[in-house]
Inverse folding.
């Protein structure tokens, strides 16, 4: 029988996940079907229960349900607990297992596709919301020299950093005025690119050879990417992260991690 999966969100028509997973399935010789599932804004938990009842094997979760998915899960992986958000659900033996593959997907994109190591690097993380929280543990595990979390609201950055204390990595929090660079890697995890705006990061954060990565993606470079490029940085958007987090979710579900190159080329010829 064909194993059923889907991505749950609201809205959901824009999701590229149904274009990604069938390629993975063909590549790995596995029989799965993957679709979109529009959940009512007040009906996420009921939607998940319905999918379980229908015999689905799992689901991806996108906005605005990643936080709510934490409460729906009966078990959480360590990285989901650290992120405080779930983007991958597995339905196994009566359990709903919540995982988060966003951070590992970003790490994989940087290491494998951009060819940049994180070990020993000075990292600037812009933003302290859910996206930034999902990034922290996977980044810390790579052994960078330091991570500065900069956010418009300093208290939010302080809270995020406090949640990851105890690791053998120098962690600091600050406002955008506290940024002194340059940094080896700058990650824009704010929502600024959704509104085609530039986060208030100074030019001094960048230098020639800095990797500036915006976790959002689109048909044109974001204002953040344009600005970073003008300072001599190498820029990258979030499409690679999207594809790599999908591959990580496929590994969680199917026990094999597919190659991502063909999917990346399909989405961006």
């Amino acid at each position: 029988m064909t194993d059923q999966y889907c991505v749950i969100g609201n809205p959901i028509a824009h999701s590229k996940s149904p274009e990604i997973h069938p390629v993975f399935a063909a590549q790995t010789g596995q029989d799965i079907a993957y679709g979109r599932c529009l959940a009512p804004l007040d009906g996420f938990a009921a939607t998940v229960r319905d999918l379980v009842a229908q015999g689905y094997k799992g689901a991806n979760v996108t906005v605005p349900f990643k936080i709510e998915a934490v409460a729906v899960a009966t078990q959480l992986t360590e990285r989901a607990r650290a992120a405080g958000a779930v983007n991958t659900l597995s339905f196994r033996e009566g359990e709903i297992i919540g995982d988060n593959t966003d951070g590992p997907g970003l790490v994989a994109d940087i290491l494998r596709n951009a060819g940049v190591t994180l070990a020993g690097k000075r990292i600037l993380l812009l933003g302290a919301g859910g996206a930034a929280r999902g990034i922290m543990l996977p980044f810390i595990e790579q052994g960078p020299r330091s991570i500065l979390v900069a956010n418009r609201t300093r208290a939010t950055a302080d809270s995020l950093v406090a949640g990851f204390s105890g690791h053998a990595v120098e962690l600091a929090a600050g406002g955008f005025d506290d940024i002194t660079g340059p940094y080896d890697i700058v990650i824009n995890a704010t929502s600024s690119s959704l509104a085609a705006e530039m986060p208030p990061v100074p030019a001094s954060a960048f230098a020639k050879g800095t990797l500036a990565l915006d976790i959002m993606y689109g048909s044109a470079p974001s204002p953040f990417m344009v600005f970073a490029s003008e300072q001599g940085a190498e820029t990258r958007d979030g499409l690679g992260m999207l594809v790599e987090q999908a591959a990580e979710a496929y590994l969680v579900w199917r026990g094999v991690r597919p190659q991502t190159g063909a999917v990346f080329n399909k989405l961006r010829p």
The first helix runs from residue 17 to 28. The two ends are 33 Å apart (CA to CA). The chain has ten helices and twelve strands.
